Known about the structure:
- By secondary structure, the chain is α+β, with helices and mostly antiparallel strands.
- It has helices spanning 11-25, 52-70, 104-116, 155-163, 180-192, and strands at 84-85, 90-91, 126-136, 142-151, 167-175, 195-197, 202-204, 223-229, 238-245, 250-259, 286-296, 307-312.
- It has 2 domains: 11-116, no CATH class; 123-312, no CATH class.
Amino acid sequence: MAVSVGDEITAAQFNGLQSRVATVMGTGSSTDGYGQALASSQVTADVSVVQASDFDNLRTDINKANNHQSGSNASIGNIDVGQIIGADASGTSVGSLTVTDEGFNDYDTAIGVIETNKFLIDSGNSTVEAKTSSTRTTNWNGTITHTFTVTFSDADQRRYFFNSGGEIRFSASQSGGGSAKDLDWRALLNAMGTIKFGYTATTATGSGTASSIGNYDLTGTYQTIFTKTGSGNYVENDYNIQARADSATILRFKVELRDDDTGDPPITPLPKGAIAGGVDEDVTGTFTSTIQQLRATGSNVSVASPAYSNVTNL
Length: 314
């Protein structure tokens, strides 16, 4: 909470700043918390002077959060021993409060930024990691499924993973085979790009129907989080992802490739020797379902990786 010029800054007000930083960087609860060890701590209520080291440690935690989210330090300066901290500036005496990035309100504003950006993750502070996959090389028709689980060591680790910007990522590919149906499946999978399951939404880098369902929206029943359909004669075919929470620590995802096309009638009138009615050809070639994750890593924020395990393969 900001203070006004002339106000005396109390230990309780410093503790208010530190508590807010701890909510983002520390254990937190629900949609708050990265699960990181803190440099800063609360000061005793009866302290007459908050030490420069207390502000140094607080600044360290703020900068770590800001770096994790945006790749740079916060817009606050270092406070030296003996400085007087004002509402909007600091200095060596009451009449010299001229350093305008070290005031109490500067710290308050910097903390507001990391609270607003708490789900963001900078590319330089994260790693994309291959986790599991499933490949099919035999011809098929109907529906093939890749189901897998993601298991966290406890419910807090699940929160930390998604709160810190973590994502579970899906992609798929088809190669080989030369029929019109094979080529349509290849185009479908290429066009959808990478699907990203985050804290409260699912998005895609390509085309398809994503959803506002993420980690915090899961229930014990499967929900469809993404769908991409075929085109032309194969518009009945689709790739879709469903997700559910088996427990507080286990998420389950089902990737379905559904070849629902039943064949389209040939051009009429029928050429001599042609068969009346459609022909539903098999799908051929190699299909691969690939699962990756984006995880917070590095010296600012680092969270544990969950374990991935295939349940059914394509």
